[in-house]
Design goal:
130 residues; globular; mainly alpha
């Protein structure tokens, strides 16, 4: 099942990249903006709960599709690109094993290797918990 989910996210990522090309953007535009959604981690400077909430909102694929649809509806190419980037970034994160965050700590799990021999790395946020 893990392989199927990773393949699904790989297809979503590639579809987002293809859509950015289809919309007429240069090949490098998608990659130049791809990590921008991770700026939402600035919320962790306040505390883990705010950080997780801000991170989860910006990494929600439903929000990405809503931004994309709003850009199409209002004929705003920059909003269309923002939705594509949000969707592609979220798919990339899930493909690499990153998921949504818990409100108490910054937990990010990266799976390496086969299903039988997995290495799990957990990063803990430093700071007060609320």
């Amino acid at each position: 099942m893990n392989l199927v989910l990773k393949l699904e996210d790989a297809v979503k990522f590639l579809a987002a990249y293809w859509l950015s090309l289809y919309m007429g953007h240069a090949w490098w535009i998608f990659f130049a903006w791809l990590l921008v959604p991770d700026l939402s981690m600035v919320g962790y400077l306040v505390n883990a709960r705010v950080g997780a909430a801000l991170y989860n909102v910006t990494h929600h694929q439903g929000l990405a599709l809503a931004v994309l649809i709003a850009g199409i509806y209002f004929s705003l190419p920059v909003l269309v690109l923002a939705g594509i980037i949000l969707f592609g970034h979220s798919a990339m994160d899930r493909l690499l094993g990153y998921g949504l965050k818990y409100p108490t700590t910054l937990n990010t799990r990266i799976w390496v290797g086969s299903e039988r021999n997995e290495t799990v790395i957990v990063f803990q946020a430093i700071g007060k918990e609320t």
